[in-house]
Amino acid sequence: MQVNIKLAEVKDRNYNVFIDELVKINFDTKVAIITNPTVAKFHLEEILSRISAKEVYVVTIPDGEKYKNMDTIEFILNECFANRLDRKSVLIALGGGVIGDMTGFAASIFQRGIEFVQIPTTLLAQVDASVGGKTGVNSKYGKNLIGSFWQPKAVHCETKFLKTLPSREFSAGVAEIIKMAVVFDKEFFEWLENHDIRDGKNLKIAILKSVQTKAKVVSLDEREAGVRAVLNYGHTFAHVIENETQYKRYLHGEAVSIGMVMANELALKLGLLNNEEEIRIKYLLQRYDLPIDYKIKSAQDFYDHFFLDKKSNNNQITFIFPDNIGGYAMKKEIDKKLVLDVLKDFE
Ligand SMILES: NC(=O)c1ccc[n+]([C@@H]2O[C@H](COP(=O)([O-])OP(=O)(O)OC[C@H]3O[C@@H](n4cnc5c(N)ncnc54)[C@H](O)[C@@H]3O)[C@@H](O)[C@H]2O)c1
Ligand SMILES: [Zn+2]
């Protein structure tokens, strides 16, 4: 299965996302595979057996979001120089979203930019992070504040790689799948209600649908001037939850799950969603053991936190809501009292 990602501005940047089609990749250049010890242990050997290139190097970086920083980028670049990679060389990201974001960013600045290929090995990376060309690292001022838009040459999603993924990580990826269905595709949402995506065949379909959805959104709005922001449904709340819990208690997808539930409560009050739909979304999240509740310490503090998000422009936040299941509404002017009322329900 393949999805072609079309980018409006420049034709030759179109690329394909391949799902379960990785047989052999041939390069007539040098390549460096960027990975970490966790992923390497399970899947590096297989990838090495499928790649043929002039020379193949493996650059291993430590596992974890806390290493998603400029020091690691410098380490990757230095390895590339030491191995005499050149402007024609290709970087391959083998890992989750952390590896993908960093490899893409390193590729975008190594000798002013070289090609890179994504081999995402988490569900979240397959359905979300590897598609769309956002790359980067965290700074001490916040997450993903340093980076570039740099599109991969190709994305290879292999569902079999997900077999080694811890179930919490799997569910975190499902949260992003549900997110896309709720705001963009009613039929897909109903399909999710009727199919268990822990089953291999269904998983492949769910990945395909999600990639198609994200690809369509990105092709309409690569730089997030409009509709791409809808992918942040649940995220305005999630970022505050992640922050309040020091990124320790929840995986990102878990925080997004709670964030969607919070956004839905507000959508209910705005008449954008009805009770039955709200319950159906919750139910679907729960089926994958995703959290749907969170104890807010102070509604006012939580509210103030919204404005620390890099996505708040001029002290204004854009809320993304479902407009019934399958549609979305972007709203800038939401009455503070209404938001506080919803947040107080979580206190
Ligand atoms: N660029 C984008 O558009 C975009 C979108 C969403 C998220 N992201 C970024 O993605 C990152 C989160 O990605 P993630 O959820 O994949 O986390 P991750 O990359 O940290 O991976 C999660 C854990 O699973 C391990 N792992 C990866 N593949 C495995 C496998 N097949 N088997 C067993 N273990 C495996 C990893 O080593 C890690 O410990 C964040 O940094 C986030 O900012 C980027
Ligand atoms: Zn997300």
Order of helices and strands: EEEEHEEHEHEHEEEHHHHHHHEEH
What would you report as the Rg, rounded to the nearest angstrom? Answer: 20 Å
Side-by-side strand order of the widest sheet: 1-2-11-8-7-4-6
Terminal CA distance reads 46 Å
| Bound ligand species | nicotinamide-adenine-dinucleotide, zinc ion
Helix fraction, binned, reads 40-55%
β content, as a range? 15-25%
Average pLDDT for all residues: 94
Q: Report the structural category.
A: alpha/beta
Question: Unreliable stretches, pLDDT < 50, 5 or more residues?
Answer: none
Shape: globular
Molecular structure report:
There is one protein chain. This protein has twelve helices and 13 strands. With 347 residues, it is α/β, with parallel strands linked by helices. The strands form four sheets. It has a seven-stranded mixed β-sheet, sandwiched between helices. Helix 5 (167-184) runs antiparallel to helix 6 (186-194), helix 5 (167-184) packs parallel to helix 9 and helix 8 (235-244) packs across helix 9. The radius of gyration is 20 Å and the shape is globular. Bound molecules: nicotinamide-adenine-dinucleotide (NAD) and zinc ion. Residues 176, 235, 252, 256 line the site of zinc ion.
